[in-house]
Design a protein that fits this description.
Length: 537
């Protein structure tokens, strides 16, 4: 395999190169050496990115994959900020009309606008800025710290050192004040020993770290929206590293799901554990407690208000939405109090008028009562049984039991006399015996009646109904003369109905309707469903 991949100027150069390679393979010519003086293996092509493991190559090249020839025009230098190159004495044509510098125009001038520019006054001409142009390489364009001056961080260090010095001085002043107070009350010898103790305490206080630094024990910086990956923002992870990770609290596969990307575990990993001993109860606990719940209620209120026609938007105007929500809660409480006051004024407040007795509130006391074997009180006073606000042990109408102490046949009554009437007078045992005798007698009468009475159904007879709806006997015979007269009367009546001029003023009503009249009415009646109705007279 050829080692060179370059183009030759002529055939003769190519022939000489081939002969030289054959001589090197035969051992008649010296081996080719690279820039570092190492022998080049002829079996390895120099354009390979990495040599095969079986060739034992020591130094392969990567020239075909990277830009190994560095461009001399590329530089890593940066702009000389604030540098000036020339200070003019008078205004020059084409310069800035405001300050007089030649390196920018009036529109791009960064100096304060003058009342009269340098073009008209030719005074206080600003020096020309140093303008540089650089051609940066790939790394230079993406270098965040290109052009950064480390000396500019000195003022930050000085500010923190000044704060530490002020803190130490304040602590020393506090210690000296304590020493003065102790010296005023103690003698000189005790004061010397106290001074040594106070100096040790002062050193311990100086070694302590303030609370603000302790809060930054786990500060994580994330970059968002920058060339390097985002704008820098500080995110504090408040979990102490000695604590057990949330995904190690329960190693059961079917337990709460852990999302490694967001480091969130919504459900409770230990649901059966005592809540007082839990250190972590899932991320959902934070969503339903504290300010998260208030913010959720605020969003819901904004949505409901927007649906009802109010111009409220939580993202566009959060302060307005929060103010409206506060006003809504205040008005809601006022409305509740007003409704409560109106109800109390109308119906009263039984809880506030009369306080409940002590027996009902507590049901027990510290009074000591001593009894003998028979249950008689030897010492103390027997505690009264608590009574309710309802009437108890009050019997009416000579009853010895209350209403509702007896139940029979889906009816309530008195147990003493077994009566079901609420306002009845108690008859005692005699009333019970009389009621039982009456019920037995009634049962005997019912049984005797059922035994003697035979229920026979009457035979049904077919009835021939006449046309006018009454029963018609089988032997009914119509008088033909009366039927002819009834037909004439029916024709006359129909003519009067058609022509109202022939109708008389004095109408006589006859309630007697004979069988011939009904037969005539039936014969003259028009049946609309009859196909031959048009041929009737």
């Amino acid at each position: 395999m050829a080692t060179a991949s370059v183009a030759f100027k002529s055939r003769e150069d190519h022939r000489k190169q081939m002969e030289l390679e054959e001589a090197r393979k035969a051992g008649l010519a010296p081996a080719e050496v690279d820039e570092d003086g190492k022998e080049i293996n002829p079996h390895i092509p120099q354009y390979m990115s990495s040599a095969p493991w079986y060739l034992n190559a020591e130094r392969p090249s990567l020239k075909h994959q990277r830009k190994w020839k560095s461009d001399p025009n590329y530089t890593k230098s940066w702009y000389d900020r604030g540098a000036k190159i020339y200070q003019a004495d008078k205004y020059r044509k084409g310069a800035c009309e405001n300050c007089g510098a030649m390196t920018h125009t009036t529109k791009t001038c960064m100096e304060r606008p003058r009342k009269l520019g340098a073009k008209w006054t030719s005074k206080n001409i600003a020096p020309d800025e140093k303008i540089e142009t650089f051609e940066l390489d790939y790394d230079g364009k993406r270098d965040r710290w290109n052009g950064y001056d480390a000396a500019s961080y000195a003022h930050v260090i000085e500010r923190y050192e000044a704060r530490d010095e002020a803190r130490k001085k304040f602590l020393k002043d506090q210690q000296f004040k304590k020493l003065e107070e102790k010296n005023s009350t103690q003698n000189v010898e005790e004061g010397v020993s106290d001074d040594e103790d106070n100096e040790d305490a002062l050193k311990i206080d100086e070694a302590k770290v303030d609370e603000s630094k302790q809060m930054d024990f786990a500060k994580v910086e994330k970059r968002v929206r920058t060339t390097g990956g985002g704008s820098t923002g500080t995110v504090r992870n408040l979990r102490i590293r000695e604590d057990t990770a949330k995904y190690l609290l329960n190693l059961d596969v079917n337990s709460a799901h852990y999302d490694p990307k967001t480091r969130s575990m919504r459900e409770d990993p230990l649901p059966d554990m005592d809540p007082n001993e839990k250190f972590y109860a899932g991320d959902n606990q934070n969503r339903v407690s504290g300010q998260a719940l208030e913010f959720k209620q605020l969003n819901i209120h904004a949505w409901e208000a927007f649906e009802k026609g109010n111009d409220v938007h939580m993202q566009a105007a959060p302060s307005q939405a929060e103010l409206l929500y506060k006003n809504y809660k205040v008005n809601k409480e006022k409305l509740k109090s007003q409704v409560k006051e109106t109800i109390v004024e109308k119906y009263g407040n039984a809880a506030a008028d009369e306080a409940l007795p002590r027996e009902l509130l507590l049901g027990q006391s510290e009074r000591e009562v001593e009894y003998d074997r028979a249950g008689r009180i030897i010492k103390g006073q027997e505690m009264a049984l608590p009574k309710s606000k309802y009437e108890e042990d009050i019997y009416i109408n000579n009853h010895t039991c209350v209403w509702g102490s007896w139940w029979k046949d889906h009816q309530w009554g008195y147990k003493c006399c077994k009566q079901f009437v609420r306002n009845s007078y108690c008859t005692g045992a005699a009333g019970i015996e009389a009621a039982e005798a009456a019920s037995d007698l009634m049962k005997a009468n019912i049984a005797r009646k059922e035994a003697t009475q035979e229920v026979v159904a009457p035979p049904t007879e077919e009835k021939n109904l006449a046309t006018w709806g009454t029963d018609i006997p089988h032997d009914l015979v119509l008088d033909q003369e009366k039927l002819a007269e009834s037909l004439k009367k029916e024709d006359k009546r129909r003519k009067e109905e058609k022509d109202e001029r022939k109708r008389k003023y004095n109408v006589k009503w006859n309630e007697e309707v004979t069988a011939e009249d009904m037969e005539a009415y039936r014969m003259k009646k028009v049946h609309h469903d009859d196909p031959m109705k048009d041929f009737l007279n």
